[in-house]
Amino acid sequence: MKAPYVNNILAPSLISPQAIKMATYTLSTGQPAFPPGPGNCGLTTYAQVANQNEHMGLAKIDYPLSSKQSIFGRYFVTHSLVPSTFTGNEESVQLAGTNDEVNSLVLGHTYILGPKALNTFRATLNRSIINKFQVPILNAPDIGVTGVYQPLPHYSNITISGDFASAGGTATPGFDVTTTYQYSDDFSLIRGSHQMQFGANYIKPGQNSNFCVFCDGGFTFSSATTGSAFGDFFAGILDSFSQQSITHDDERWNYFGIYAQDTWKITSRLTANYGIRWEPYFAGSILNGWVTHFSQERIWARGAEGIEPLSTRRLSQPRSHWRQILTRALRVPLPRRSHAICVDVHKRAACTAATGGVI
User: Fold this and answer.
1) Are 96 and 84 in contact (CB under 8 A)?
2) At CB < 8 A and 24+ separation, what contacts does 109-116 make?
3) Which residues pair with residue 308 across a beta bridge?
4) For residues 182 and 200, is the Cβ–Cβ distance under 8 A?
5) 170 with 226: CB under 8 angstroms?
6) Do the Cβ atoms of 88 and 29 come closer than 8 Å?
7) Residues 19-28 pLDDT 10s
8) In angstroms, rounded to a whole number, what is the distance separating the alpha carbons of residues 359 and 345?
9) Distances in Å between the alpha carbon of 263 and those of 113, 191, 267, 309?
């Protein structure tokens, strides 16, 4: 350590009682948080768990209702369990454990209305559950630090720069649950030289998540004062402190689209494909009214600052494609021509916590 500390010795009166408490802290399991290693030099060693158990299941059913109707079902589930890396030493807490499950269900109905008409209906449910968990470790109040809000019990982020960290920064409990419903219907009809298709698609995704990364605060000790990061830690000289709020994200979205297209065989050597699709934009929402509503239509209507007015925005996307089919005897590549107008609107939102009011 640098002056005024002599012979790398920190006077007992300058030693932080919180640092002593942390060095000797015993976990709820009865084990020392930082078990001493061989000798008396302060060396501690640890291992980490790196196991994973995963199971998958698949089921399907196909059932003909009649000569014209049939139904089917498909179900897929997978479960993954990865334990925390904790092995008894707090330094082994580098990754949280995960208990994840994904479910997918598809139901379908096919109806033959006639020799030239077919209707298909599909309903889909996808659900993923991402659950992070962690074993209890020490936090700031456990070692006598007061005045710090601790929404997550028995967790801490104490870093001694270049030497030591009490736990991995993102090894915190949390969950992320996403559920998506989808319904679609497609109708195909043949009339003369035309094969026409019509359809609609509706998707409703939702997400509920809760994470607490650094919400208990992050304590960092450097060597700025004593010349040693451990010296600053035992002297209780904090270099920096930061804290974040709990992150909630409860989103809801809606998507709807309809289309019509036609494949027209004009001659034996010429086929044209053309169609139109309409996909209106529905702004997403976050539950509990935590963010203000963004109206894209209002911005378009203003027509200011280079933003085009709504009246000029195309919400339908016509598409066309034609192909000149040459006889195989010519043995030349088949030339193709196509045209489309595409509109892409972001379906996700980015939310940023801020102080001083709602953005």
Assistant:
1) yes
2) 109/69, 109/70, 109/71, 110/69, 110/70, 110/71, 110/72, 111/68, 111/69, 112/67, 112/68, 112/69, 113/68, 116/189, 116/190, 116/191
3) none
4) no
5) no
6) yes
7) 888 888 887 7
8) 21
9) 20, 10, 12, 34
Determine the average pLDDT of the residues in 335-346.
Answer: 56
List Cβ neighbours of 105 (8 Å cut-off, separation of 6 or more).
Answer: 73, 74, 75, 124, 125, 126
Cβ distance 105 to 125 under 8 Å? yes
Q: What is the CA radius of gyration of the chain?
A: 31
Closest CA to 179 of 98, 104, 248: 104
Q: Which residue has the tokens 């169609």?
A: 275
Exposed, middle or buried: residue 149 (CB in 10 Å: 0-12, 13-18, 19+)? exposed
Q: Give buried/exposed letters for 315-347 (b at 16+ CB in 10 A, else e).
A: eebebebbbeeeeeeeeeeeeeeeeeeeeeeee
Per the listing, tokens 């298909």 go with: 120
Tens of pLDDT, residues 306-322: 333 433 334 455 555 44
**CA 106/CA 72 separation, integer angstroms:** 8
Q: Say how far apart CA 167 and CA 213 lie, in whole Å.
A: 12
99 residue type, one letter: N
For 87-144, the three-class secondary structure string (H helix, E strand, C coil) is CCCHHHCCCCEEEEEEEEEEEEEEEEEECCEEEEEEEEEEEEEEEEECCCCCCHHHHC
Cis before 318 (ω within 30):
no
Q: Which of 180, 174, 175 is nearest to 201 (CA)?
A: 180
The string of pLDDT tens digits covering residues 256-310 is 999 999 999 998 888 888 889 888 888 777 877 665 455 566 655 554 443 334 3
- pTM of structure: 0.71
Around Cβ 61, how many Cβ atoms within 10 Å? 10
